[in-house]
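It is worth pausing here to work through a concrete case rather than discussing structure prediction in the abstract. The textbook approach is simple: state the sequence, then state the predicted structure, then interpret. We follow exactly that order.
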Amino acid sequence: MANCLVIVESPAKVKTIKKFLGTNYVVDASNGHVRDLPKSQLGIDVEHDYEPKYITIRGKGDILAKLRKEVKKADKIYLATDPDREGEAISWHLMKALKLDEMKDKKIYRISFNEITKNAVKSSLKAPRDIDMNLVDAQQARRILDRMVGYSISPLLWSKVKRGLSAGRVQSVALRMICDREDEINAFIPDEYWTLDAKLKCSGRKTPLTAKFYGAGKEKLAIHNKEELDRILKGLEGVSYIVDDVKKGERTKKPPIPFTTSTLQQEASKVLNFSTQKTMRLAQQLYEGVDIKGHGTVGLITYLRTDSTRVAEEADRAAKEYIASAYGQQYVAKEETVKKTNGKIQDAHEAIRPTDITLSPVQVKESLARDLFRLYQLIWKRFTASRMQPAVYETTSVRIAAGEYSFTLAASRLVFDGFMSVYVQEEDKEESNVLLGSLDKGDELSLQELEPAQHFTQPPAHYTEASLVKAMEEQGIGRPSTYAPTITTILARRYVAKENRNLYVTELGEAVNRIMKHSFPSIVDTEFTANLEYLLDKVGDGSVPWKTVVRNFYPDLKEAVDVAEKELETVTIADEVTDEICELCGRNMVVKYGPHGKFLACPGFPECKNTKPYLEKIGMKCPLCGGEIVIKKTKKGRKYYGCSNNPECEFMSWQKPSEEKCPECGSYMVEKGSKLLCSNEHCGCTVDKKEIKDQKAG
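Step two, the predicted structure:
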């Protein structure tokens, strides 16, 4: 009979871990948190030293009942929740909910592992420990501070702006950062500047070289306006272009460091166009375990919430052995690439890496869904590259004298690809490989033409999810586990809208931010929030009692809320009016937001209670009946394109329809990447979008 019970957080881990343990182990899941603060009240006794009031989460009763039965049968109970302070707190809540701390006849242990592999799980069982109450207290403090901010300020926003809004300790700062960037962009005044290129021909070369204006002799000179440009062009009339200096050298490009949560989210956004939420969801699946052909259920990556770039010696050694075997000894790194830290890094975990480097993307591709595979491939390539040699470039820089002025040429040639044989980032693809041939000092080049160009300085870029995560990390706002939910919340609250990856603040977001800056300046102050994160980390390492942090925080918050309730004026945010007419009373319907997203409602409520589904038009007529093509969703949430005249019209397409007709059979076509495909499955015609565009332009 089994006498050991292992309790994990996720049911997905159960299957993975079960196969590592013998028959005397039962593995079961808590399905995340089992206790929390009540939703109906603050849940913190501010009159009695901020004691939290925990209750069993609704729906967790059956899970706890099942776990209690398993506990009765077991002699040893291993709490194996995630290896971070959230996981530590879940273990503590399980201990309290199951009353494990009152059981004298049972042995209760806390175990944790950074990866779900046989070695890691077995090793953790050999080194059990007690629950780390410092980590639990750090999580309690964070949860209580978040609850205090949310439950104190959100009702104020409901009464002064509209119901359904929320404020948050981290989300409000993230919103402030986006608003501040928007203000910078709006206040930006562009400055004029000019560039000047010289197209130069040299003997033995058919295509001209493009040299860039540098300055007066060896002194760098910027061209600010047309007058300065004209003066330079005047000085270049009739001059000879002579090679004045040629320098050859070598440049190395260091390999990247392994992913942290933040850098994984940033790179997945840039390369794969994944949202932070999607990246974390997929990474969770890779961590918990996936069925791999020939291997069974395997946890493919290490723990996904980390800000450390450290790699275990065993993993480092295995990676270098693999690289030597697969690529050659010359590709193996001789020294490790180390990231400079800013003092805010928590080194409890390793970087995100594959658990088994020999499971290359090629080997697992058949077993993984497309997006899971793409994320795993990104992690595998990044980690493998981090254990490889730098790339080496041969560089040539040339200075060309032109009268009193000078131009420069620069080129580089990749002579050893190193880590780039595995992993090439977007910026690496921009490397110039133009060979300058055998230019020598004193060579004369003939001018083909001068190409001046006017430019204007650009405002700061709008934040994307990737750049916002990077900025939050750099400023110490939030922690790896908070980036994705923070961004998801401000998008869901409609404080921010996302268009072509860019984040734009909405009118609602501006109104909320104004209130927060006016009434709660410390809550949205980046320095204050970063300092609070630092204090929470100090709670985690046992340096600061958690209640000290809460005691110093709540009185000021309470006072600010009391003042705001008296002084703040009501803000009105107008609903978005549509051209859809209410068939009951004739008014133009407005866009409203519910638990399942947008819907249309009559502004005459409560007299007129008419509502309709919100249908997003794509600006195309239905090829069957001429109605509007709209974006719809199945019951499971999958997007498709349908006709607004449904059910009378049965038009439906999984791909976005195009107005182009098939040149072969005349059916409508659908978009797929850079191609247009005929919707008639018996036709099979494929056309390149660029070709059609060029034909229309011609």
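Step three, interpretation. The chain is about 35% helix and 25% strand. Confidence is low (pLDDT under 50) at residues 342-347.
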